[in-house]
Amino acid sequence: MYTIPELDAHLKQAGADYALIEQAAPIRSASDAAPYYDITKAAPTFVLQSDRGLIACILSGNRGRLDFEDLKARFGFSRLKMADRKKVQAQTGYTVGSIPLIGLELDCIFDDSLLAFDYIYGGTGDELVTLKIRPADVKRLNRVFGVL
């Protein structure tokens, strides 16, 4: 689990193209995010419970709802659902609602449609800071095992 200074140092060391955007209040909806960034470039990180344990799923906010049956078929899971909030916090140290794009240390599914954007925006682990980053850096800095 990274603090914001640790995340900043990690991203600098990795040569990522990014910025940390501070906001006065947590972002809970598209209307909350609109003053800070282009919401069509939002990339939420979901934590899913599979038969192989917890996995991260970084998707374009434009994709809509998660299709668990499709994900199960594509990646060979027998079970797949949203992970329990308490289990996510216990295993990752992060609370649901502030899951980071970088630093989860979970295997990850990445939405390749995000690569069409110059930058994407997502969590940092701190509900008052948003990460602006090149999508290729997000893909490179996670343990991606599958792409959509």
Q: Would you write up a description of this structure?
A:
A hairpin with a 5-residue loop joins β6 (120-123) and β7 (129-133). The chain starts with a helix and ends with a strand. It has helices at 4-13, 30-33, 68-75, 85-92, 135-140, and strands spanning 18-22, 45-50, 53-58, 80-82, 107-110, 120-123, 129-133, 143-147. It is α/β, with parallel strands linked by helices. The strands form two sheets. A five-stranded mixed sheet has the order 4-2-3-5-8, with helices on one face. The protein has a three-stranded antiparallel sheet with strand order 1-7-6. It is 24% helix and 26% strand.
Topology:
Blueprint: H1 4-13, E1 18-22, H2 30-33, E2 45-50, E3 53-58, H3 68-75, E4 80-82, H4 85-92, E5 107-110, E6 120-123, E7 129-133, H5 135-140, E8 143-147
